[in-house]
Amino acid sequence: MTADRPPLADSVPDRLYGRRRGHPLRPRQQRLLDETLPRLRLTQAQAADPRAAFGMGDVPLWLEVGFGGGEHTLDQIAAQPEVAYIASEVFENGLCALLTRLVPEGAEATGALARNLKLWPQDARHLLRALPEAALDRLFLMFPGAKRRFVHPELLPMVARAMKPGGVWRIASDDPTFQAWVRDCMGAQEFFTLGSLAETRPAGWPPTRYEAKALREGRQPLYWEWVRR
Ligand SMILES: C[S@@+](CC[C@H](N)C(=O)[O-])C[C@H]1O[C@@H](n2cnc3c(N)ncnc32)[C@H](O)[C@@H]1O
Fold first, then answer.
1. What are phi and psi of 88, to 5 degrees?
2. How far apart are CA 141 and CA 223, in angstroms?
3. Using one digit for the tens of pLDDT, what is the confidence trace for 214-223?
4. Which residue of 57, 71, 95, 209 is surrounded by the most CB atoms within 10 Å?
5. What is the pTM of this model?
6. Are 41 and 50 in contact (CB under 8 A)?
7. For all residues of the chain together, what is the average pLDDT?
């Protein structure tokens, strides 16, 4: 590890995410993980030069942390074919939910895949640490679990290091405790300035499953854009 890549702070809880596996995997899900995921996976070695892994030239690079069912990812890669998009998720059923919508049954090993998508099926913090400095044009943290404090004073230098000056970090949450946490934590740092804060989903923000659940259950989401100085 080089000196300009801050280590994960010991005081930051290592288990930011919940379960890696929910229900036992069905045969189709197992095939998606065995045959499709390796074709889309960004490797640890490729993380040092992610644009080269896409082979799309010097295009914008976006990263989504914790894509859940993958709705936001699928909308973004379709709407932004000239953006190289890395989607990260640790939960196997989430990975399968996205993969199942990418390839038809029977074509797990051979079906054509979007050229602008790579998956990081591990803790996104490890990718942030491995990326070159100022690699990311955008970062998405959509409805993280309430206790999963990806926004953390000890992680912010690592997030900031990976982002381009002027790059945008989108955060959405329906959880009042997390909303207050974002306000306090981001109010006390100097890497990002507030670009915008909205109570209704701004144009260009694809909906997600957790957002739909929050709205159904009467919670008020907030949508932030933080701009890297
Ligand atoms: C509450 S869900 C929201 C899913 C989706 N973004 C949505 O809005 O529907 C949060 C997701 O983040 C994932 N997650 C949490 N910490 C993570 C991390 N450090 N790296 C990658 N994924 C993570 C969890 O597995 C979970 O699927």
1. -115, 135
2. 10
3. 999 999 999 9
4. 95
5. 0.93
6. no
7. 92
Q: Rounded distance, CA 25 to CA 202, Å? A: 36
Ligand 1 centroid from CA 189, angstroms: 24
- Over pLDDT 90: what percentage of the chain? 86
The response to whether residue 29 sits with its C-beta less than 6 Å from ligand 1 reads no
* Predicted local confidence at residue 2, as pLDDT: 38
Rounded to an integer, what distance in angstroms lies between the CA atom of residue 139 and that of residue 146?
19
Helix, strand, or coil here: 218? Answer: coil
Residue 125, pLDDT above cutoff 70: yes
What average pLDDT does the segment 107-115 reach? 98
Q: Tell me: the pLDDT tens digits for 178-204? A: 999 999 999 999 999 999 999 999 999
Task: Tokens 């993380």: give the residue.
Answer: 47
> Where does the pLDDT of residue 10 fall: very low under 50, low under 70, confident under 90, or very high at 90 and above?
very low
Backbone torsions φ then ψ of 180, nearest 5 degrees = -65, -35
Phi-psi map region of 159: left, alpha, beta (phi>0 left; psi -120 to 50 alpha) = alpha
- From the CA of 145, give the closest atom in ligand 1: 1
Give the Cα separation of 141 and 156 in Å (integer): 13
Distance CA 14, CA 5 (A): 17
140 lines ligand 1 (CB under 6 A): no
- The answer to whether 106 and 133 have CB atoms below 8 angstroms apart is no
**What residues pair up with 86 in beta bridges, in sequence order?**
63, 118
> Does the C-beta of 89 come closer than 6 Å to ligand 1?
yes
How many angstroms does the Cα of residue 90 sit away from the middle of ligand 1? 7
